[in-house]
Design goal:
Blueprint: H1 4-23, H2 30-44, H3 46-59, H4 65-89, H5 94-99, E1 101-104, H6 106-114, E2 119-122, H7 129-132, H8 134-140, E3 143-147, H9 153-165, E4 168-172, H10 176-185, E5 189-192, E6 204-208, E7 211-215, H11 218-226, E8 230-238, E9 242-247, H12 280-298
Parallel strand pairs: 1-9, 2-5, 2-8, 3-4, 3-5
Antiparallel strand pairs: 6-7, 8-9
Length: 316
């Protein structure tokens, strides 16, 4: 588009202005600024506000309408706060950043990596996910993540510099599977966030909040192929510009030498049910989404409800 370069410059100028404002304040004040911006976005962005309310109605049908509206508003405030926190944290050196974390379950990462098969880190667009991998990359070595480049090349350059500084390496989607296998075979770690909808040709249908959702099977296939454990990792904001990193117990693929479960009477050789848990990839992916769902239910205002998660091909 002819207007795209101009729009990119305007967006970048707005980012630099916001960055300058945040850097002039204590880091702990960044979330208050972001929360105010999120409150404004909730009032002005009717399209995403409607998507958030619709998703909350699907996920929490028993919650009164007023409660869902309050959650949607809180979600906007949280993501404004998380965005400004992320920008503000760019000023912190690695030592200061890690000093601001408290850790829960770090021993699970130790146990998973001790196996020598690499580790797959399971995350979600929840809490402070852009911050979550930084202490892992700094303490344990490079954390590889799959990401699509930002549409704005100026912002993409800024993101790339930040990620490299804090121990990240980006794997671009084209040819990602081969690169992820190489990383795991080298005993390193790959982070994947499977909580967003993917294209029909790239996904499988798996229940999420009790509703079929197109989900990438890559995480399950990598774990099944390499034996690498899947370790859930989440980061949440704490008062005073601090963070809490939560590492859950690792999940392992089934033993390939184990006997398959016996078929029940009347079952055929293959199921036509797209949610068939007998499929090991589907069964593993269900487990991953169940862990993410449990985290979201504990912090519902901190998940990205503005994303059209449950859209299926026939509804487009």
């Amino acid at each position: 588009m002819k207007q795209a370069p101009l729009r990119h410059r305007v967006e970048y100028a707005a980012y630099l202005l916001l960055k300058a404002v945040l850097y002039s304040l204590p880091h702990a004040a960044a979330r208050a600024v972001g929360s105010a911006l999120g409150r404004l976005a909730h009032r002005l962005d009717g399209r995403h506000r409607a998507v958030a309310r619709r998703n909350l109605a699907l996920a929490f049908p028993d919650l009164p309408r007023a409660g869902r509206r309050r959650l949607a508003a809180a979600c906007f405030r949280h993501f404004g706060a998380a965005l400004c926190d992320f920008i503000s944290a760019g000023r912190l050196d690695p030592v200061e950043l890690c000093r601001r974390f408290t850790f829960e379950g770090w021993e699970h990462l130790d146990a998973a990596e001790h196996l020598g098969k690499g580790a797959l880190l399971l995350g979600a667009h929840l809490g402070n996910w852009e911050i979550s991998g930084r202490p892992i990359g700094l303490y344990r070595g490079t954390l590889h993540t799959v990401a699509r480049p930002a549409d704005n090349p100026y912002l993409e350059r800024e993101l790339s510099l930040l990620r490299q500084r804090f121990g990240f390496a980006i794997i671009h989607k084209r040819g990602a599977a081969r690169r992820m296998l190489q990383v795991l075979r080298a005993g390193s770690r790959v982070g994947i966030l499977p909580d967003q909808r993917v294209r029909p040709q790239e996904g499988i249908l798996v229940p999420f909040f009790g509703r079929p959702a197109l989900t990438t099977p890559v995480l399950a296939r990598l774990s099944q192929h390499t034996g690498a454990p899947v370790v859930p990792v989440f980061a949440y904001p704490e008062p005073g510009g601090r963070y809490r990193l939560v590492v859950r117990a690792p999940m392992f693929p089934p033993d390939p030498e184990a006997e398959p479960p016996a078929s029940q009477p009347g079952e055929g050789a293959a199921s036509l049910d797209p949610l068939d848990p007998a499929d090991p990839v589907i069964a593993l992916t269900r487990r991953y989404l169940e862990v993410i769902e449990q985290e979201i239910r504990a912090h519902p205002e901190m998940w990205l409800w503005m994303h059209r998660r449950w859209d299926l091909p026939e509804s487009n």
